[in-house]
Amino acid sequence: MKTIQKLYIIIVVVIAVSSIISSVFLYQDNTRLKQDIEKREILLTSALNQDSTWRVKQDSIIKTVEKTFFFLCG
Predict the structure, then answer these.
(1) How far is Cα 32 from Cα 47, in angstroms, rounded to an integer?
(2) Domain count, the chain
(3) How far apart are CA 63 and CA 42, in angstroms?
(4) Containing domain of residue 4, as a range?
(5) CA-CA distance, 8 to 65, in Å (whole number)?
């Protein structure tokens, strides 16, 4: 009977230790994923800002060309 109790205690300890270890690894993975998401959001925001800046430049170029074209045509 005592050997069965010892066996149960060993099994419970092994399960507890393995669950603690797996929770630590899961926490580390979640932390890495959170950091990756934050980096992607920063890159996406930067890309969107560059797109809007490029659109403004394109609009100003188009307006300049239109003014020059209409001035030359008459």
Answers:
(1) 22
(2) 1
(3) 32
(4) 1-73
(5) 84
Separation of alpha carbons 8 and 10, rounded Å: 5
Which tokens in the block code for residue 56?
Answer: 């403004």
The pTM score is 0.55
Per-residue pLDDT of the chain (74 residues; tens, 9 = 90+): 788 999 999 999 999 999 999 999 999 999 999 999 999 998 888 887 787 778 888 888 888 888 877 777 76
Which residue type occupies 25? Answer: F
Could you report how far apart the first and last alpha carbons of the chain are, in Å? 107
